[in-house]
Each structure stands twice: as structure tokens, then as C-alpha cells.
Write a structure and sequence with these properties.
single chain; 174 residues; alpha+beta; Cyclic Phosphodiesterase, Chain: A; five-stranded antiparallel β-sheet; four-stranded antiparallel β-sheet; 9 strands; 41% strand
Length: 174
């Protein structure tokens, strides 16, 4: 049986707490908020495979590579402002992140990413057709959320009609 995997940088408890505090102001929005434990920066987009063991073995090569320091500066709708489907936090791409992503893609056996890398974490999802019904049409909050990504993780996505739930299968310290 095939499973849906992706490679991510899990967020720290400090960043998850900052997100939770921010989220309280918008709790009334009819969106699917990600659970604190599911907040992450995706390095390798989802793919289907039967066995995670070979990818875990390859990702071990990232052990001790070095932490990535970043800062999230804005929370808003994305990825397309004309047809948003997410609430996300964004910031400038930090040094070392593009190289880490390229290496993670290679180690996971996935093709190189063609889209430019954007530093972002998804906070909530909604269907684009539901955007006109959201009570907040403009969302451009400035934030200062520093983060030090300390590990890379192989994650399994369990999909359901109520949204995805993520299970970290292996976390490797950077």
C-alpha cells in the first residue's frame, strides 16, 4: 500500500506558541487551522511510496549539517492574492535554505523544484470559492517570528475530509 510522504523542517515550540497567540485574534474565521504539532516548512513536496525506510536512510546524510536561522515577517493570504486558499506566514529566504532543499530533494529521490523557494509555513487552509464569505478580506499582519530550524523530518500525511494529519516518522537533527 502506498503512503503519502513529504520532507519538512518542523517548527519549534516557541514559534508554534507565537502562531497560537496570533491565531487567537482570528479564531472566528471559518478556515481549517493546522494543529500546532503540524506546523512545518516543506522542503520536499508530497509523493507516494510504499516504504519510508530508504528515504530515512538517505536523509540521515543531513545529520549535523547545520541549523537554519530564519525570520517570518508577515502573515497573510496566499499563495495567490487573487485566489487565496491559505493563511500563511512568510519571510525572506535565509542563507543555506535553497541548498538544503536541493539536497533533500535529491536524497528523497524527487525531481528538482522548478518554482522559486519561498519561506513560508501554512497556518490554515480553505477552499478558494469560500474566500468571498470570509469576514476578513485583507490580511497583512506584520510579525517578527525568529526561528531556528534544528531538524529535518520525514512526515507521513494522513488525508481525510476534515483535513490532513501529519505524523513525523523520523526526525534528524541538523
Amino acid at each position: 500500500m502506498k503512503h503519502r510522504f513529504f520532507v519538512a523542517l518542523p517548527v519549534s515550540g516557541t514559534l508554534a506558541s507565537a502562531v497560537a497567540e496570533w491565531r487567537e485574534r482570528y479564531a472566528r474565521l471559518p478556515v481549517r487551522w493546522l494543529k500546532d504539532k503540524d506546523l512545518h516548512l516543506t522542503l520536499v513536496p508530497p509523493w507516494y511510496a510504499e516504504d519510508p525506510a530508504p528515504v530515512i536512510a538517505e536523509l540521515e546524510r543531513l545529520r549535523g549539517r547545520g541549523k537554519i536561522s530564519a525570520e517570518f515577517r508577515r502573515v497573510g493570504y496566499g499563495p495567490n492574492v487573487r485566489e487565496p486558499r491559505l493563511i500563511w506566514a512568510e519571510g525572506p529566504v535565509p542563507a543555506g535554505l535553497p541548498e538544503l532543499q536541493a539536497e533533500a530533494l535529491r536524497l528523497a529521490g524527487q525531481p528538482a523544484e522548478r518554482r522559486p523557494l519561498r519561506l513560508h509555513i501554512t497556518l490554515a487552509r480553505f477552499r478558494p470559492e469560500n474566500f468571498p464569505g470570509l469576514p476578513v478580506k485583507r490580511l497583512e499582519d506584520e510579525v517578527r517570528w525568529p526561528e531556528e530550524f534544528a531538524a529535518v523530518a520525514l512526515v507521513e500525511a494522513h488525508l481525510s475530509p476534515s483535513g490532513a494529519d501529519y505524523e513525523i516518522l523520523e526526525e534528524i537533527p541538523l
